[in-house]
Specification:
The protein is built from twelve helices and no strands. The chain has about 210 residues and is an all-alpha fold. The chain has two domains: about 80 residues, Helix-hairpin-Helix base-excision DNA repair enzymes (C-terminal) (Endonuclease Iii, domain 2), CATH 1.10.1670.10; about 100 residues, Hypothetical protein, domain 2 (Endonuclease III, domain 1, Orthogonal Bundle).
Amino acid sequence: MTILEVLEILDKEFPDTQGELDYTTPFQLLIAVILSAQTTDAAVNKVTVELFEKYPDAYALSLAKQEDIEPILSTIGLYRNKAKFIINCSKQLVDEFDGVVPKTREELMTLAGVGRKTANVVLSEGFGIPAIAVDTHIERVAKRLKLAYKNDSVEVVERKLMKKIPEDLWARAHLLLLLFGRYYSTARNHEDPYEILERLKEKHQL
């Protein structure tokens, strides 16, 4: 089964699915992705309702105090560090980018709390710029599907996926592989992922 066949099966299983974080602007997406580290998207969505109502843009959040942000984020993991990150990130956006989220990976990765995965999500989902963000789900799935070696780093997994998947499918592939890892080939489920895919193939009569 090729990676394109895998994506075709998953596209039938998740036909209309979009990213699961709630946001209305690239800035809000950036903040939500920073907050999503080691936390579920559902948990992030619960706190960003209040956060974005009070601090809708970089200018507003850059003026916030740590003690004002922490209670809003207190139900998600690492909330103290994340409060610091998003305030500092907002200050950088205001000071260095006129409050606008930059559109290059290099510039995004200069921001507080932003690593390569977060930058790639913002590029792909926020701006439609081809990128594959490799989180723990995608890393696990890629290795289980033998698209990468067990000891490959996250960046190596990303490069291998970029080589194997056509560029115009990167954004969709990121989402489909993530959902497959989140709901089917989970960390606790060690079943051969190709057997899971064969069942999905039969289900959709492919």
